[in-house]
């Protein structure tokens, strides 16, 4: 039989979370962000439950081709735009909208030969200091784009640096409003955190929910996914493949970092960092065994972790182990809890799921 680990993708959760984003956005149109292979869930698996979105936003041309191949005829936005001049040829052929954040991209457009003008999203650097035109250069870039016959319509966008934190979006929103005052074009500002925490003020014409669509809270641990009424879209589960009885003083795993203080029964689960589980997750990281919450002990190995069975006298070889997501008996272990224990974020755990893990739609 195959190794018992698998990932399940839950279409009902994806549809529910997208509806939550739409409700919070207060009338704005919604991009379903499917970059990084839909945050590790698989573009082909999430397509049907996310078809109620107004468009798909992603990073590269290969992802855009996959969305078009699935039959989507609506808007598709390249969030980082084109990476070289010839990318514009595929933008024309696939009718892709694309972000413009640098003078070089405007130069490429000015030399592009096309019979069909393209829709572009001009990006403002309002304080994130990654991509985008500085406020003092923004209006000049807008004028250049608006004058090009290769450009159909110019929309305006920015990205919030701390929508999930204490400083919020007010300062960046003010920069955006000042830079865009009097300019025609639809606006797109809000990521997941801004949709949940700062809409409708920051919703504008288009919102770009990403992580919330997949059931993770963008501001964890301040708020949980349950607080925002989000449902986990991915479950990673396996089974116990062994059981050990420890005596006081016995150690577990590489480095002997866990020392039993009393008699303790532990289970060995078929999951490790070779499957995408975080290697740096410490003892105490939560797991579910047969739907009952317990903890991991010892170091994460490439193929195995060990879990405390002290409160589960009936658990044994074959018992179901939920690493995150939906467990048996209506139990749930939020991916954000696991990520917090491992000092990372749910985004990374989703995207790090290894190719060797069988993944299917639930």
Structural commentary:
The chain is α/β, with parallel strands linked by helices. The protein has 2 domains: 11-214, Alanine racemase (TIM Barrel); 234-361, Lyase, Ornithine Decarboxylase, Chain A, domain 1. It has 11 helices and 19 strands. The protein has helices at residues 11-25, 35-39, 43-46, 61-69, 87-94, 103-111, 135-146, 170-180, 192-198, 335-341, 346-351; strands spanning 6-9, 29-33, 55-58, 76-78, 97-100, 118-123, 151-157, 187-190, 206-207, 234-246, 251-252, 258-259, 264-269, 286-289, 292-297, 305-308, 320-326, 332-333, 359-361. Strands 2-3-4-5-6-7-8-9 form an 8-stranded parallel beta barrel, surrounded by 5 helices. Strands 10-13-16-15-14-17 form a 6-stranded antiparallel β-barrel. The chain starts with 5 loop residues before the first strand and ends with a strand.
């Amino acid at each position: 039989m195959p190794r018992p680990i698998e990932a399940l993708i839950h279409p009902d959760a994806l549809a529910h979370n997208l509806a939550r984003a739409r409700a919070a956005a207060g009338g704005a149109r919604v991009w379903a962000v499917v970059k990084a292979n839909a945050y590790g869930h698989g573009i082909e698996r999430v397509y049907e439950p996310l078809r109620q979105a107004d468009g798909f936003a992603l990073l590269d041309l290969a992802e855009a081709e996959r969305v078009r191949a699935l039959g989507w005829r609506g808007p598709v936005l390249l969030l980082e735009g084109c990476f070289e001049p010839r990318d514009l040829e595929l933008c024309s052929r696939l009718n892709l909208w694309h972000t413009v954040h640098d003078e070089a991209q405007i130069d490429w457009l000015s030399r592009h030969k096309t019979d069909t003008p393209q829709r572009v999203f001009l990006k403002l650097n309002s304080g994130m200091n990654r991509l985008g035109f500085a406020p003092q250069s923004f209006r000049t870039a807008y004028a250049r784009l608006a004058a090009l016959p290769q450009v159909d319509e110019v929309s305006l966008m920015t990205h919030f640096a701390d929508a999930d934190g204490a400083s919020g979006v007010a300062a960046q929103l003010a920069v955006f409003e000042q830079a865009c005052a009097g300019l025609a074009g639809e606006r797109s500002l809000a990521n997941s955190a801004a949709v949940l925490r700062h809409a409708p003020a920051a919703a504008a014409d288009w919102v770009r929910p990403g992580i919330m669509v997949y059931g993770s809270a963008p501001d964890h641990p301040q708020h949980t996914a349950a607080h925002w009424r989000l449902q986990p879209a991915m479950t990673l589960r396996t089974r116990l493949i062994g059981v050990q009885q420890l005596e006081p003083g016995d150690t577990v795993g590489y480095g002997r970092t866990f020392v039993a203080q009393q008699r303790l029964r532990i289970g060995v689960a078929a999951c490790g960092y070779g499957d995408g589980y975080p290697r740096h997750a410490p003892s105490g990281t939560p797991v579910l065994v047969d739907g009952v919450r317990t903890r991991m002990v010892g170091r994460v190995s490439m193929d195995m972790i060990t879990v405390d069975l002290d409160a589960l006298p009936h658990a044994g070889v074959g018992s179901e182990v939920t690493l995150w997501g939906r467990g048996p008996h209506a139990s749930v272990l939020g991916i954000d809890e696991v990520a917090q224990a491992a000092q990372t974020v749910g985004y990374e755990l989703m995207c790090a799921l290894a190719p060797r893990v069988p993944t299917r739609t639930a």
